[in-house]
Amino acid sequence: MEFSKFGKRFTRHTGASELMDDMGAAMDGSGSMIGPMLMLGGGNPARIPAVEQIFKDQLAAVIDQPDEFSRMVGNYSRPAGEGRFRRALARLLHNQYGWDLSENNIALTSGSQNAFFILFNLLAGDMERTGTHKQILLPMAPEYIGYCDVGVSENMFHASRPTIEYLDHRLFKYHVDFDAIDVSENIGAVCVSRPTNPTGNVLTDDEINKLLGLAEASDVPLIIDNAYGTPFPHIIFTEVKPLWNENIILCMSLSKIGLPGIRTGIVIAREEIISAVSSMNAVMHLSVSSVGAVLLHKLVASGEIINISHNIITPFYRSRVEHALVCVRSEFEGIEYRIHVPEGALFLWLWFPDLPITSAELYSRLKRRGVLVLSGHHFFPGLKEDWRHKNECLRMTYSQDPATVAAGIRIIAEEVRRAWD
Ligand SMILES: Cc1ncc(COP(=O)(O)O)c(C=O)c1O
Q1: Can you tell me which atom of ligand 1 is nearest the CA of 144?
Q2: Average pLDDT of 317-346?
Q3: 111 lines ligand 1 (CB under 6 A)
Q4: Of the N and C termini of the chain, which has fewer Cβ atoms inside 10 Å?
């Protein structure tokens, strides 16, 4: 059967599909993998019993109230998503940060991955008036793998290499190289994830303000992917000043708080953008799911979601990352390696300078050893230049249970040593 250009575009092999296939195969015991896998590859949030219990209690309360249950599953919502939830969230953000916004500045999507499909294709690609092709500027690669393939047209991204700050204790930190970026007239929007997947980097307030200044000067929006950020799930270990204004499109998600299965993304933007997202939701889905919006309504309306994030989720991940760092430091003794300073998100970004094999080869060897990680080369969307560094890094999650993380790190160390031998 012949697929259309669009069909071919969206069915080709991608890093994201490889990851999701490998994870699926490992979960259901199929595929080419032998025995149980140590799942350090995916972006699944950790199972946190205290948080799961809160969600179960909320669900039980919804089920007990016929009107709430019907609101959750028995009606189509508006295309922008459940209004009561959007109102409650607008109030929460206003009370918390003083932002001047209403429900008309908020749209829900089918997960934030879907929000990026909508936003990138809305703001970049082939433009009707000028006949030009606009791109999304990623000011700093490595960036999130999920952006790579969402463009309906080709060549959607332009990315720049970061500068590298070398820190003590084998740590390093990427910074935006402002000399290298140019928000030229073929840029439709600037986008950063903060905290960054895959590196755990948190762009400084200064970097965000400068990027906003550049975007505003060129009259394009700054998209901030806040999937791990504040006020929820707050998987972030540095102090940041949350920012929103009409030139910022802030994307949030209910996934990393522990609910990836309910596929709820949140876009916070000026009304013109929200109305466009809402129209595209109507075409693609009629309306978006109300499950997450009804499940979490009380926690958002009361502000309790912020307490849960700060008092349970942040300390949980802080202790997990500290454990993972201890394991890396003891297992990697004698190996040439560096770790990106983990300031947020769920991942350690490991850099093996001058590694004699590519990270893609290391990924395959680790998969054969029963450890699923991600090769770093997937995380450079839009960075065309040759840079050895692209093939020297791995992303591993530390959200899984500590024994799995420790066992995985031990095998990574063995395979890196073997590559050097
Ligand atoms: C930085 C970042 N943005 C967006 C997403 C998409 O999340 P979801 O579609 O589950 O909301 C992820 C998922 O891993 C992510 O890491």
Answers
A1: 1
A2: 97
A3: yes
A4: N
Domain enclosing residue 44, as ranges: 5-50+308-420
The band of 218, judged by pLDDT with boundaries at 50, 70 and 90, is very high
On the question of pLDDT at 131 being above 70, the answer is: yes
pTM of the model: 0.95
User: Is residue 414 in a domain?
Assistant: yes
- Same domain for 339 and 254: no
Dist. CA 43–CA 195, nearest whole Å = 13
* Amino acid identity at 421: D
Choosing from 248, 270, 303, the residue where a domain stops is: 303
Atom of ligand 1 nearest to the CA of 115: 9
110 lines ligand 1 (CB under 6 A): no
Ligand 1 midpoint to CA 190 (Å): 17
Name the residue with the closest Cα to ligand 1, atom 6: 113
Length of the chain: 421
Which numbered atom of ligand 1 lies nearest the CA of 255? 10
C-beta of 255 in contact with ligand 1 (< 6 A): yes
Q: Which atom of ligand 1 is nearest to the CA of 265?
A: 11
Of the candidates 271, 303, 335, which is a domain's last residue? 303
User: Please, what's the b/e burial string for 88-102 (b: 16 or more CB within 10 A of its CB; e: otherwise)?
Assistant: bbbbbbeeeeebebe
Average pLDDT for the chain: 94
In whole angstroms, what separates CA 130 from the centre of its chain? 32
| CA–CA distance, 270 with 180 (Å, rounded to integer) | 29
**Is the CB of residue 146 below 6 angstroms from any atom belonging to ligand 1?**
yes
Q: What is the CATH number of the domain that holds 416?
A: 3.90.1150.10
Whether residue 173 lies inside any domain: the answer is yes
> pLDDT tens-digit profile of 286-299?
999 999 999 999 99
Residue 66 lies in a domain: no
- The answer on 97 and 12 residing in a single domain is no
d(CA 317, CA 398): 8
